Amino acid sequence: MGKKIYKKGRWLRITSRIFIGFLLLLVIACFAFDQFVQFRMSDEELKKVFKENNVKGKIGYYESHGRKIRFVAVNDDSLPALIFLHGSPSSLSIYKHHFLDSTFKKMFQVIAVDRPGYGYSGFGDPEPSIQKQSEMIRPLLDSIYQLKRPVILVGSSYGSSIASRLVMDHPHLADGLVLIAPSLAPGEEKMYWFTPYIQSPVLYWMLPRMFKSANTEKLAHKSELEKMLPYWKNIHVPVMYMQGEKDELVYTTNAAFAKEHLVNAKSLDITFFKGRPHFVPFAEKAAIKNKILEMYNQLQLK
């Protein structure tokens, strides 16, 4: 009997050590993955890019609604403003090619913001409210709008929801709105079956911080877009809408929603990129650039 108890106790000790070792390896793996998957560039990395490409760039931070928000502004601050809001998950680093664009260098001060929960604006600390996010970004637009015109606001994917909310609530802050692969209609986007389960405490802690922000936003997105339904009529500026015709994440029915709800927009230009999926900012850089320039020319003729 004693020998059996001894063997059982020894087996339990070995099993517990294996389990503890597995948990330790899991924690290390999650930490390593979090460090590897961030989709962001530090201030030092951005400064190096600016220096190597002879770009006049500024990296700034400001406080808004209890959050520290990072932004980047390149080129002469006397030029019209082109302001980018990224999607999810991402950061302002996605617009690096716009910072370096030779045409934009002559025409715009290009500005991009790390949205709350991404980049260096509280990385991994999400803000699910679209209205609150827009108010956190608003101070930057307030300061810009007082100094120059026109101001063109560009939102990509989830960033298009934020950009639209900003123009709804503060119609004077932008002169034109460019929406890329935009998520506008409640529920008209892909929801993965596992998304709600990831939010459980057991799994959530293992997620890289960037995906924590994305998952939290995703779960709240439909209800947040529903809150915006009464306010689309407040958008009076010209709107350009661009999307891949094979978008598998944000359904192309969002275009019909835009036609139905942007009833007071000065104009609505809808472009579908043939055969393209969701990530058109990478695949259609030239076409998107041309549309932005078209928007600028349209505003100049006002």
Task: Explain how this protein is built.
The chain has twelve helices and eight strands. α5 packs across α6. The chain has two domains: 36 residues; 260 residues, 3-Layer(aba) Sandwich (Rossmann fold), CATH 3.40.50. The protein is of the alpha/beta class and 302 residues long. The protein is globular and about 50 Å long.
**How much of the residues is beta strand, in percent?**
15-25%
Largest sheet: 8 strands, mixed
- Taken in chain order, the helices and strands follow as HHEEEHHEHEHEHHHEHEHH
Q: What is the class of the largest domain in the CATH system? A: Alpha Beta
How many beta strands in the DSSP annotation?
8
Could you tell me the radius of gyration in angstroms? 23 Å
Q: How far apart are the termini?
A: 95 Å
Helix content: 40-55%
Strand order of the largest sheet: 1-2-4-3-5-6-7-8
In a nutshell, what does this entry contain?
The protein is α/β, with parallel strands linked by helices and 302 residues long. It contains twelve helices and eight strands. An eight-stranded mixed sheet has the order 1-2-4-3-5-6-7-8, with helices on both faces.
What attributes does this structure have?
Rossmann fold; globular; 16% strand; 12 helices; alpha/beta; 2 domains; 302 residues; eight-stranded mixed beta sheet; 46% helix
Sequence-ordered SSE layout with sheet pairings:
Layout (H helix, E strand, L loop, with lengths): L1 H35 L6 H10 L4 E8 L2 E8 L6 E5 L10 H4 L2 H6 L1 E5 L16 H16 L5 E6 L1 H12 L6 E5 L14 H4 L2 H4 L4 H19 L11 E6 L8 H9 L6 E6 L6 H4 L1 H16 L2
Parallel strand pairs: 3-4, 3-5, 5-6, 6-7, 7-8
Antiparallel strand pairs: 1-2, 2-4
Helix pairs in contact: 5-6
